[in-house]
Amino acid sequence: MKLVPLTAGLLAATSLSACAYFNPPPVEPETIVEVEVETVEEPAPLDVAVHSGDFAEIQQFTTPGGASVWLVSEPSIPILSLNMAWKGGEASDPEGLEGLTDAVTYHMNEGAGDLDSLGFQTRMEDLNMSFACSASNDWTSCSASMLTDNAGDAMDLIATAFADPRFDEGPFERFRREQQVGLKTRETSPGYLAWKAMSQALYPDHPYARSKSEESIAALTPELAKEQMRKLMVKDRLLVTAVGAVTPEELAPMIDEVIAELPETSTLPETPDIVLPELEPTDPIIVDLPQPQSLVQFTGPGLERDDPDFFTAYVLNYTYGGGGFESRLMKTLRIEKGLTYGIYTSLSAGEHLQTWGGGGQTKNESAGEFIEGIKAEMEDFVENGVTEEELADAKAYLTGSYPLGFDSNAKIASQMMGVRQEELGIDYFDRRNDMVRAVTLEDVNRVAQEYLDPEHYLFIAVGQPEGIAAEEFETESEE
């Protein structure tokens, strides 16, 4: 084969031929179509106020939907604990419909949207979450706990519970049956009978003194419960506390989804304050109940939560009867005299009722001695007060044990909710121990003289107590 050298002309021709072969045909210009793109506005940044305290850093903000939130971000624990509370509770039940608010809270996790009761409970198990609601005289509350990895789906489920609760007849009939059983068992409950006697003696006409009956439970319907829910759970009375591995920016839209379908506001009946009557020296009230022991309860006037002497009374109560085996009532009536297994005292500083009381059980044969022993200890507090050592022990325990109430996300969220409900201020956790330490022996003994006079207490004994000159309290069966 003979090789022919390529000349410049041949190279040029080859190049032109190649260009002609590979050049594509001309393309017509494309028609440009203008498309209108919807602009998505970024949500406005949250206005977050941060309180850095000794116990926790609390972030305070209001969601775009109007929910007031306190949040403690805890990234080390992948669990979100959430508390929600609305002002208004069982005291708002219409007369003759006692138990209506309890019907509402009972059914909040008994089915919503497309999920019946079993489907709702199964979905909660699948998400490894909890969600339940409850009510007291003055508050309706819901709490939830979930893994932060599932928080979006869990909050979706809770949102459905608030937006479209079912109140199906099956769970509602179960609620009625359980309530009817409760009505029967309470007639042999010493605690219930003591409460009933106390409330009828001190504030018989107040909503707090009303209780469920067979007639009121039978009158309840799913429609009434759903209507009551819309009165109780509204946006402008909602408080939220949360603790978990979540930021305000992540939590706010989830909360707004939950409350999206709640009414803005509602009107509930006003709960009047209770002014306890002037208690004169009187014999105990006896409620007859055939049993080998008598429950003894005693109630007197207490203090409002913002009373300057509240913390003094709180410290005093530890030595009085709130300190377990370190309290005087326990040392004297159990350890020294063997009259009881246990006796306690506590302060109740509700918004509409403030009391200071306690109770314990003893054999029927020793009921009279037990009551006299309680009164004798109260008189000793009035006459002699507490010692420096007792005061120091009370302060040491009350300040040292306080952090134990913050050892889980759920406990912290609950503690914050209590502070919010009682309007104690976001810095309360930092001030609390200092207020305990500031209590003086002079203040404690002054408060003891003012509040622990046994003549200003109502005593009630439930059982068949002996050794007591007393007025008998007749219970009315509500079957």
Low-confidence spans = 1-24
Number of strands: 13
Roughly how much helix do the residues carry, as a percent range? 25-40%
Strand content: 15-25%
CATH topology of the largest domain: Cytochrome Bc1 Complex, Chain A, domain 1
Distance between the terminal alpha carbons, to the nearest Å? 123 Å
Alpha carbon gyration radius: 33 Å
Task: Output mean pLDDT.
Answer: 90
The CATH superfamily of the largest domain turns out to be Metalloenzyme, LuxS/M16 peptidase-like
- What sequence of helices (H) and strands (E) makes up the elements? HEEEEHHEEHHHHHEHEEHHEEHHHHHEE
The biggest sheet, with number of strands, parallel, antiparallel or mixed sense and barrel status, is: 7 strands, mixed
Which strand order spans the largest sheet, edge to edge or round the barrel? 1-2-3-7-4-6-5
At a glance:
The protein has about 475 residues and is of the alpha+beta class. The protein is about 40% helix and about 20% strand.
